[in-house]
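Posting here for the record, re: pyridoxal-5'-phosphate.
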Amino acid sequence: MEQASRVKKLGSAIFSEMDKLSKEVKARGVDIINLSIGSPDRPPAPHIVEALQAAVADKSIYGYALTQGLDVFKAAVAEWYGKRFNVQLDPQNEVLSLMGSQDGLGHICLAYLNPGDIALVPEPGYPIYTASVMLAGGKKVAVPLQADNNYLPKLQDIPEKVAREAKLLFLNYPNNPLAAVADYEFFSEVVDFAKEYDLIVCHDNAYSELAFDGFRPISFLQVPGAKEVGVEFHSFSKTYNMAGCRIGFVVGNREVIAALTAVKANLDYGIYKAVQLAAVAALTGPQDYVRENAAVYARRRDVLVNGLRDLGWDMPRPKATMFVWAPLPKGYTDSYAFAVELLHKTGVVVVPGIGFGQLGEGYVRIALVEEEERLREAVARIKASFDFKVTENKPA
Ligand SMILES: Cc1ncc(COP(=O)(O)O)c(C=O)c1O
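Prediction output follows.
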């Protein structure tokens, strides 16, 4: 059975290869410390679970939900946006519920790309942007994100012809996998650039609430004029530990919201109402859980980064996200080979940077998705199996 060519273009073989290898190692009886997937390991706050339990017991809410989302959900999103970012949204026309932000990111290209149309996609990048372009039959043009520019795209380096032809620009700050962050000045440049080249900006802000040391990520929509050029995607998965509930939202430009709604109205009938009501409880309830959650990740980050730095493996201390984007230890150049060696010697699973695009080579992504004790254990195992100080300057 011949698959459509768009399916063959999907996904990186590296993710499935690492998964297969870690299962093999596990089958040998090794205790795996899985730091590869960005899936939160902690439960939602009690008031969210209680709201979900109460809603599930209500027999009147088992009908189809509308694609756009319950009024109470859209109102809660608009209110949260106002409080958190000081951005005013019209809940009826500028908010759309999503089955996780992935749903919106994955379908947005169907709303705007005709076959062969260009979308600008950051690289290294979270894989859904590329998949979205491929599923719509569009053409991806990679926009490099490199350390010398704090992993922000150099917009002026995008060839004029490409910028003119492109229809969409994906961005993601705080960033997965790079853990990079963006400021107001950068987003202002983005808005100017999008206006000049008539681009729709799709900003993925899934990690807006997972930031440390007093840092508060901003919304791209805070820039005057941003709503004219784009939308912003949010997730309950990381902010409220609701990844399995599959709920998120997109806000901003009403034409874009309407176009995505039109696509989704043909694909789904909205999110189970009980899940939407739990999300309302999350947005309108106490937010100290969100801050505590971020503090948990900050402590994990310190355990891991300090521990590995002490071993001679240097890496930046991220300001946000649940990831550490670590350059390979000295002496190593191949991210896949290093990740495989790490797995075999220690049972610790990380993602080779090459899985996020060619520019990810030379790095691994480590997800802070296990408790501090397990991260200490990971550091101890790495200490017992590697000597980074000695291997310095030696090829792997
Ligand atoms: C950058 C980024 N965007 C979007 C998503 C998808 O999140 P959701 O669970 O809301 O679909 C993830 C999930 O890991 C992510 O890392």
